[in-house]
Design a protein that fits this description.
Length: 235
C-alpha cells in the first residue's frame, strides 16, 4: 500500500487529505467510513460490517469499511488534523485511544484491553486498543505526533489533551504539578513513570494564544490613531 499526502496548501501543517493506493492483495480497514471522500475501484471491493468489540465499544455498534485492491481511495481529514502512519512488526505494548485510529491494514489484529480500575479512574476510559501483527495503522491527530521516552524514576507530566498512546505496563495518575499558581492554571496532567515511549499530539488549537500573538502592540495602535495617515504607515 502506498500513502500519498494531499495538501490544502504548501505546508505540511495544511494537510487536508490522504490517498491510499492499494495493490492486488492489499486491504485496509477504515474505522471512520464517513471520511472516505472518493473511491476508485469496483463496488464489490468495499465491504462494510459492524464491529463487535468487548465492553463499551460493543454497545456502540461502530461500522468499519474494508476496502481491497487494486484500488485507491481518498480520505478527508477534519480541519486542523494530520495523519500519522505507524508501522507495526509484531506485538506492541502501546494502548491507544480508539478515537484517534483512522485505519489499519490487513495483517494487523486489533483487540480491546480492559484497563485496571486505577487507570479507568485516571483516563475515564474503560477500554484501550492494542495492536499486533505486521502492517500499518493510521492515526489522526491535532498537529504532529511525537514520541517521548519515559523515565522509571523521574515522573513525566503530560497534558491530558496530548496523550494518544502509552505502554500498558506504566504507572499513571491524574495530577497537576508546579506551585499553587501553576496548578490552578493548567489542564489536568497524566503523571507517568516507567519505561517505554508515549505518543503525543502537539498542535491542538489555542484561540487565546493566537489572539495574543496576532494582537498589535499598544504603541503601534496609538501611532496609527495619532499620526496622520497612521493607518497606512503603521500596518
Amino acid at each position: 500500500m502506498e500513502i500519498i499526502s494531499r495538501m490544502g496548501g504548501a505546508a505540511a501543517s495544511q494537510q487536508s487529505a490522504v490517498e491510499l493506493q492499494l495493490r492486488e492483495g492489499d486491504a485496509v480497514h477504515v474505522l471512520h467510513p464517513q471520511q472516505i471522500a472518493a473511491f476508485q475501484g469496483l463496488s464489490r471491493q468495499r465491504e462494510d460490517k459492524f464491529m463487535n468489540m468487548q465492553g463499551i465499544y460493543r454497545k456502540k455498534k461502530l461500522i468499519k469499511s474494508k476496502l481491497s485492491g487494486p484500488s485507491s481511495l481518498i480520505l478527508g481529514l477534519p480541519g486542523g488534523y494530520m495523519l500519522h502512519c505507524m508501522e507495526l512488526d509484531g506485538d506492541s505494548s502501546l494502548l491507544f485511544d480508539f478515537r484517534h485510529l483512522l485505519f489499519y491494514t490487513e495483517g494487523i489484529e486489533m483487540k480491546s484491553v480492559l484497563q485496571s480500575f486505577k487507570n479507568v479512574v485516571a483516563t475515564k476510559d474503560i477500554m484501550r486498543m492494542k495492536f499486533q501483527g505486521h502492517g500499518a495503522i493510521g492515526l489522526i491527530s491535532c498537529g504532529p505526533v511525537i514520541e517521548m521516552e519515559l523515565d522509571p524514576v523521574t515522573p513525566s507530566f503530560i497534558d491530558s489533551r496530548a496523550l494518544i498512546a502509552f505502554p500498558s505496563h506504566v504507572g499513571i495518575d491524574l495530577s497537576v504539578y508546579g506551585n499553587h499558581l501553576a496548578s490552578q492554571h493548567m489542564s489536568y496532567q497524566w503523571k507517568m513513570t516507567g519505561t517505554g515511549k508515549v505518543l503525543l499530539q502537539v498542535g491542538w488549537p489555542d484561540a487565546g494564544l493566537e489572539q495574543f500573538i496576532g494582537q498589535d502592540s499598544l504603541v503601534k495602535r496609538l501611532l496609527r490613531e495619532i499620526v496622520p495617515f497612521g493607518g497606512i504607515w503603521f500596518k
